[in-house]
Amino acid sequence: MTSTDQQPFLSVKDLKVHFSTEDGIVKAVDGLSFDLARGRTLGIVGESGSGKSVTNLTILGLHNPDSTKVEGSIELDGEELNGAPEKTLEKLRGNKMAMIFQDALASLSPYHTIGKQIGETYRKHTGASKQEARARAIEMLRRVGIPQPDVRVDDYPHQFSGGMRQRAMIAMALVCDPQLLIADEPTTALDVTVQAQIMDLLKDLQQEFGTSIIFITHDLGVIADIADDVLVMYGGRCVERGSKEEVLRAPQHPYTWGLLGSMPSLDGPVDVPLNPIPGSPPSLLNPPSGCRFHPRCAFAEKVDGNRCATESPVLEITDGRGNACHLTDEQRREFFSDLAGSQAH
Amino acid sequence: MSNTSPLLDVSGLTKHFPIKGGFPIRRTVGAVQAVDGLDFQVAEGESLGLVGESGCGKSTTGRLITRLLEPTAGKISYRGQDITHASRKQLAPIRSEIQMIFQDPYASLNPRHTVGKIISGPMEINDINPEGGREKRVRELLEIVGLNPEHYNRFPHEFSGGQRQRIGVARALALEPKLIVADEPVSALDVSIQAQVVNLLQQVQKDLGIAFVFIAHDLAIVRHFSQRVAVMYLGKIVEIADREDLYGNPRHPYTRALLSAVPEATVDETPRERIRLVGDVPSPISPPSGCRFRTRCWKATEKCASEAPPLVQVEGNKPGHLTACHYPETQETVPAPRLSKDPEAAA
C-alpha cells in the first residue's frame, strides 16, 4: 500500500480521557495514539477497564463533556474532532462514522419498529421522505441477510432473535454508507455459529463499501478472524501494536503472551494447567507507577534497576509494529521461546 | 469406569415449561420443550461438559440435576437412589453432596453477608460443625481457592469478579460435595481471570476427586476441563463422547459446524474448514419434527423430517461415542458448502 504519501483516514494522537469522579480522577485512556487507513480493520484487544470502549466513545464524541477531560487529537479525514462543536459531530455521527454496540436489545428502542429506527438515521442525514427511508430500510435489511425484509421491516426489536437484532443494528449503522465503522464487542453476546455469520457479514460489507472498521473485542480468536492490524490495550495505554500476523505469531509484550497463554485451544494439550496472568487488572484511579503491567508481569524483575516500576516504557512504532516494554529484544526472544516451548507439550 | 455404577444416572430426563394463555380462565396452551429426553451418566470424579448454544437446555439440565426444577418426566438417580421426585426431606442429605457454582459472581453472593457468613452458610443450614469450628474450616477453604484467609470478614463488593467466583467455589466446596454442577462458571470473567478460575477448578477436581457437570458455551474451555463432552441442540443431546473422540472425530453435522465456527487465535496459511449455518435455532415451543437440527442441516432429507434419529453408537464410533444422526459425518466427508449469504433460505 502506498500509505506513506497518503494521510491515514483516522488518526488519534496522544489521546487522554480522564473522568473526574468522587473518588478522584480516573485515567481511562492515558496517551493513546494510532492510525487507521481506509478499508482496513483495526482490532483493539483488552480486558474490561483497559479503556478500549472509552476510546471509541470519545472518537464519536459520546462522552459526557461535563465530567470528562479529553486531551490530544482525533483527526478524521483531516478534520479535528476533539473540541469540535456538537453540531459538526452530529452531522458526522451515523453518516461518516457509525457504531455498533454489544447489546443490540438495549441499543434499539423497544417502542419503534426496526424500519423506523433504520430510516430515522437516513432521513436525518439525507432529508429523504418517509417512503424513501422505508425503501432504504428494506434494502439495508436485505443486505444484512434478514429474511423477508419487506415484512420484517415493520417488526419491533423484541420480535427479532439475538442474531437478527445484531444484523438490524449493523443495517442501522451502515444506512448512510459510513466510512468509519466502530464495532464494540458486536458478537460477544452471540452464540458461536451466529457470531461467525455476523463476522462474515461485516467482512463482506467491508469489501463492498471499503469501510474502515475499528473492532473492539476481548477475544483474540475473533481478532484472528477479522482484523488486519491489532492494538493491545492495558490500563488505558497501548502495550503492543502490529499486523495480525505479527502480533499472533510473534507477540512482543508479556501481557499479550499472558492473554494467549490464558486461552485454551481446540487442539492444545489438555491436562496441563493454563498459564493465566496472576492478579487482576489495575485500578485506573491509582494506576501502578512505571509500566502499568509490572505488578502482574513475570518478567519485571529481569529488567535491571527496577525500571519497570519507576519508568514508564515508551511505545516505539516502526512500520506499524512496536511495543511498550523495557525488555530487550534478545530477552524477549528468549522468554517467548521458553513460553512457547512450555505450552507445546 | 463403566463397570462401577455411575455417580449420577439420568435417563429420559424431560422438562416442559407450560405456557399459559387465554382469558378469563388461563389454560395451558403449549409448552416450551426445554429439555426433551436426555440420557447420560457421570462417573465418580469425572467431568462431563455440556455445550450448546443459548436455549439448547443446558442450564435447565443443570437445574434439574440439582433438583432446583421439578422434572416433567424421566429419572435421575444419584448413587443408585432415585431422586427424580424426592421430597425436600429426602433430598436434604443429598443436597449437601451436589453443589452448584453459578455464572454471575455478582448476583450469586449476598452483598449484605461477609465472606465468612457466605461460605459457612451451607454448614449452618446442614448443621455441620467441623472439628475446630466453622471459622477454621472457612479459612481453610479460602486458602484452597487462593484467597487470603484474613479476608474472612470482608464483604463481596470488596472483591473483583474473579475473586468473587473463587468465593463461590469455596462455598460449593464447604460441604465436601461429590458432584458440582458449574453453570458457565467463567463466562462472565476476563480472559486472564478465566484461566485462573479454570485452573482452580481443575485442581479442585483432581485433588478432591469431585465429579463435575460443566456447562459452558465455550468449546475450547470445555475441552480443556471435561473428560467427556455432550453437545446439546434444542433440548436434546446430539452427540456425546470422550473428549478426544468428540473433538477429533465429530460425527454429528451440528458438532462439526459448532467446532468450525470457533474463532481460534492462530493465523494459519491454510484456513480450517468452515461450515456456516444459516438462520437461528428454531423455537423450542414447536421444535421441528424428526431430527431437530434438520432445518439448519445441509444434509437433511425426508427421513430426517419424519424420523428422529436415536442417540446410538453409529458405525465407525468408538465405544461410548454416541451420535444422533441418520447421516453421520466421516473424516472424509466433503466440507459443507459455505452458506452464509442466502437470506431466503433462512426463512
TrEMBL record, chain A:
GO molecular function per UniProt: ATP binding; ATP hydrolysis activity
Assigned protein family: Belongs to the ABC transporter superfamily.
Membrane topology of this protein: Peripheral membrane protein
Subcellular location field: Cell membrane
Residue ranges of every copy of the ABC transporter domain listed in the record: 12-260
UniProt xrefs under PANTHER family: DIPEPTIDE TRANSPORT ATP-BINDING PROTEIN DPPD, OLIGOPEPTIDE TRANSPORT ATP-BINDING PROTEIN APPD
Taxonomic lineage: Bacteria, Bacillati, Actinomycetota, Actinomycetes, Kitasatosporales
A GO CC term attached to the entry: plasma membrane
The organism of origin for this protein: Streptomyces colonosanans
A single GO BP: peptide transport
Protein's name according to its UniProt entry: Peptide ABC transporter ATP-binding protein
Alphabetically ordered keywords of this record: ATP-binding, Cell membrane, Membrane, Nucleotide-binding, Transport
Automatic annotation (TrEMBL), chain B:
The ABC transporter domain, residue ranges: 8-259
Keyword check for Ubl conjugation: no
SMART domains: AAA (SM00382)
Single biological process term from Gene Ontology: transmembrane transport
Sequence segments annotated as region (Disordered): 322-347
CDD domains in alphabetical order: ABC_NikE_OppD_transporters
Homology family: Belongs to the ABC transporter superfamily.
A single MF term (Gene Ontology): ATP hydrolysis activity
Protein name: Dipeptide/oligopeptide/nickel ABC transporter ATP-binding protein
Short name of one Pfam family: oligo_HPY
Keywords: ATP-binding, Nucleotide-binding, Transport
Keyword hit for Cell membrane: no
Superkingdom of origin: Bacteria
SUPFAM superfamilies for the chain: P-loop containing nucleoside triphosphate hydrolases
UniProt organism field: Streptomyces colonosanans
